[in-house]
Structure formats: C-alpha cells, structure tokens
Design goal:
The complex is a heterodimer of chains A (377) and B (88). Chain A has 377 residues and is an alpha/beta fold. Chain A contains 9 helices and 23 strands. Chain A is 26% helix and 32% strand. Chain A has an 11-stranded mixed sheet with strand order 5-4-6-7-8-9-10-16-15-12-11, with helices on both faces. The radius of gyration of chain A is 21 Å and the shape is globular. Chain A starts with 17 loop residues before the first helix and ends with a strand. The relative contact order of chain A is 0.11. With 88 residues, chain B is mainly alpha-helical. In chain B, α1 crosses α2. Chain B is globular.
C-alpha cells in the first residue's frame, strides 16, 4: 500500500485477484454490461451456477446478478439494476454529508453486493481513488486509516481486530463503514474511544440493499432516505428504490413485489427508526458470510449413518468469527469433526467454519415435524 | 526459543480447533489452502493477533506474512528471529 500502483478499469475475462475483480466490475458497471458476480472460491455455488440455464443470465435492464445463501439450501440469485446501486450510493452519501473524502480504502472483495456497491460504486460517484490489496493486516489498515480523508469500507472483523491491537493511532480525519454483521455495542464504543473516529454500521441484505444504519454503540437503526419500513409477524419489511425486483429461486426467475419481507426480527419505533432484535435463527453470519444452517443440516444428514441434525448458532464476542455452530447429531455412528471439516470444505471452499459437535443426542420435533430441540442420551 | 508445538497449542486454542491435536499438525503442513489445515483469511488475521499477544511479535506487512504463514515451521522461525533481534 505504500507504493501507488494504478490499475486501469478494463474487461478481465476470469478475474481472480481482488484488484482484477474491482477492475472488471467497474468496467461492466460503467459500460452497462450485465455480469454474474459471485465468489468462485465456493465450490457448491460454482456448481449451482454452472447448472443453471444460461438464458437466465439475459435479463433486460439488469446490471448484476449476485448470489446469497438461501434458507432452503440452494443459493438465491438476486438481480440488481444500475439504478438500484446509484440511488443507494446517493442515499448513503447523504448520511455522510459534511465529511470530505479523497480516497476509499476497502478490505472487502468485489464478489458480493457490499464490496461492489459500497466499495466500488460509492467511490466512483465521489470520483476518488479506490485503494485495496489482496489481504490486510489490522496494522496495515490502521496505517492507511490515519491518512486524512480516508473512507474505510470494511467488516466487523477488522473493527474487532483493531480494538484488540490497541494501536496508538488517531483516525479522527477518517471514517469507517462496516457490513451487516453486527459490531457489538461494546466494540463500537471501544473503537470510537480508542481511535477518535466513528464506524457506521450498514444494515443491508443482497435482496434489499441498504436498509438502515447506526453509529458506534448506538442501538437504534435509522432507515436510509427512500427506505420505507414496516413489520409483519415482528419481521422487517422494506420498500425502497434499492430493493431487487427479480430473484432467482430454485432456478426459476420470480418477480419481487414490494414490500420485501426480510427474516430480521425488529421493533419499529417510528417511520424512520427501528431496533434489530435478532433474525430468524436459520442463518448464521460467519466472518461476514451468510450461511444457511438448514443447508448444513442437509449436508450432514446426507452423510452415512447420520439420522438427524440440529444446528444452533452460538455467539462468541471475543473471537473474530463471532458466530459458532453448535451441531447436535442424532446417529448410531457419531459425527467426526475431521470428516465434517472436509465435507464443509468441499461445499463452502476456503471458508473455515467454526463449530462444535454434540453427538449422542436425540432431536425433538414439533407436532408438524419441525426440529425444535434435543435431549441428551 | 519458541517451538512449533508451542505455536500449534496457541493456534488450536486461539482458533477453537477443538477437534485437532498438536500431533496432527505436521511442522511442514500448509496452514492455509485446501491441502493443509484449511484456515482462511479471517484465521490469518486471528493468528497475527495470537502471535502478537502470546509471543510479543508483531507482523507488520501482509506481503511478508504470506511467506512466514506458510507452515508452522516458517512461522516459528520468523517468531524466533524477531525475538532474537529484540534481545540484541
């Protein structure tokens, strides 16, 4: 990062590095070229995309197709227009009014909506340089954040890591944005006090785009301009110009009618403010990646000798990967951790998922067959 | 002098790799990638924090880290070199 090395925005057929991904998505964005944006390091996702009818990829007026883990096991494809991204970027910048930035430093890859829309489109709109590198150490990010006018686009992992190194640094002339995985109240407070700056936590999903934001240790999320919020069965519903109008579900294109129903459990305080109370429990967020626990349950249950599996998500605020999967297994043979690690790697690629296995349990079910708990044998 | 077993114990504890024993990680096993221990980029950041906290050695540059993080042996060699320099 000490040496400037500019890369042109250009078409790159099979981008592999972060810089190549950035160059290519901006080329597509600037020239209105449709592209499928996904993480090629996830074997199951690659296999799924390769299995799709190629006609699906030709949808009028669409800019990007992203993929998110589906609650039913298969990834959900989410089509986004250029307008989705541009109106969203303007709404985000409205919340940063009065701040002056001369560059964006981004630690995230450009293989999902957060990296592309916030890490690439926002700086394009500001007409400022994007600085990135393949991997960052917390110390390296700290050095970059000390430079005046830096907007840092990162994840909660780095906020926690910066808190842990307690570097003698001052970021008062910079500002941080983090993705949806929550920065705990304590981490937000420590970060603000240690480094004399703030971190704005963007509450968003691939389907909805940005929904709300909060700063440091605040509890209340404020909806972005243009975002209407509501709830059904205590779960957030949103309408906004950033929400997708088309998704790909089980290989079939479906129109999305507003409002979009999320799985986030909320308390609506007024028409612009809400509190996030939790989310429907079958989605874990590990190191910023959303993983369906149902998908993992299905993968394990397909293994020889395994009868039934229930996964619960456990929080560990001390770890960078703050969500750990507790895996309860009903079987005659028991589930071996090394075998599971291998199977998860085959399905999720380079992501190392934190888990703990509990064998010798009996899974209890509700009257309609839903897995609801377990009993130790 | 830090040994590879000292490092492995700290990595296992720090990353919560409860299913893996010290003797199951070869000194020359790749820490990252499909052929080795299979750690990922977040684990890499965690290991830099573990090394700093447990051995008081700072890894300053990720370019440098890519080489020293190859295996337990390369990482321990780096830690010991840094500790030796600090005592000079």
């Amino acid at each position: 990062m000490d040496n400037k090395c500019y890369m042109d925005i250009k078409e790159i057929k099979n981008p592999t590095s972060k810089v190549e991904q950035l160059s290519h998505v901006l080329h597509c964005f600037n020239n209105n070229i449709f592209e499928v944006v996904y993480d090629k390091s996830q074997p199951a996702l690659v296999k799924y995309i390769e299995s799709l009818d190629k006609k699906i990829f030709k949808q009028d007026g669409m800019q990007f197709l992203y993929f998110t883990s589906g609650t039913t096991g298969l990834p959900t494809g989410v089509f986004k227009t250029k307008e989705n991204s541009l109106t969203q970027a303007k709404a985000l910048l409205k919340t940063l009014e009065g701040m002056k930035f001369n560059r964006v430093v981004t630690t995230v890859p450009f293989v999902h909506i957060y990296g592309v829309d916030i890490g690439a489109v926002v700086p394009q709109l500001l007409d400022i340089d994007i600085w990135t590198k393949e991997n960052f150490l917390p110390q390296e990010l700290a050095s970059e954040a000390e430079k005046e006018g830096t907007l840092v686009v990162t994840t909660p992992v780095f906020i926690k890591a910066l808190n842990r190194i307690k570097k003698d640094a001052n970021f008062s002339k910079s500002y941080f944005l983090t993705s949806t995985a929550p920065v705990s109240k304590e981490d937000g407070k420590i970060f603000h006090e240690l480094y004399n700056t703030s971190v704005s936590q963007l509450f968003a999903s691939t389907e909805t785009g940005l929904m709300g934001h909060k700063k440091d240790d605040e509890d209340i999320l404020e909806a972005y301009e243009g975002v209407s919020i509501g709830e059904k069965y205590k779960m957030l519903r949103v309408s906004s110009p950033f929400v997708t109008k088309k998704i790909l579900n089980n290989g079939v294109i479906e129109d999305v009618k507003p409002p979009f129903q999320t799985e986030d459990i909320v308390e609506i305080l007024n028409e612009k403010e809400f509190k996030l109370l939790g989310r429907s429990s079958n989605l874990a967020k590990i190191a910023g990646k959303r993983i369906s626990t149902q998908q993992i349950e299905g993968i394990i249950e397909a293994m020889d000798g395994i009868d039934c599996v229930l996964i619960k998500i456990r929080k560990d605020d001390r770890a960078l990967k703050d969500e750990i999967l507790d895996i309860y297994v009903e079987s005659k043979v028991g589930l071996d951790a090394k075998v599971l690690r291998k199977v998860l790697k085959e399905n999720f690629g380079s992501m190392n998922i934190a888990f703990k296995i509990f064998n010798n349990v009996s899974i209890t079910r509700s009257s309609v067959g839903k897995k609801i708990g377990f009993k130790e044998l | 002098m830090i040994t590879t077993n000292d490092l492995k114990e700290k990595i296992i504890a720090g990353l919560g790799l409860e299913d893996i024993g010290v003797d199951e990680i070869d000194d020359d096993m790749a820490l990252f990638g499909d052929d080795g221990l299979g750690l990922d980029s977040v684990d890499a950041i965690e290991i830099t924090l573990i090394v700093e906290k447990e051995f008081n050695v700072k890894i300053k540059d990720m370019g440098e880290a890519e080489n020293i993080f190859s295996t337990p042996t390369t990482l321990v060699t780096y830690i010991n070199e840094q500790l030796e320099q600090d005592t000079k």
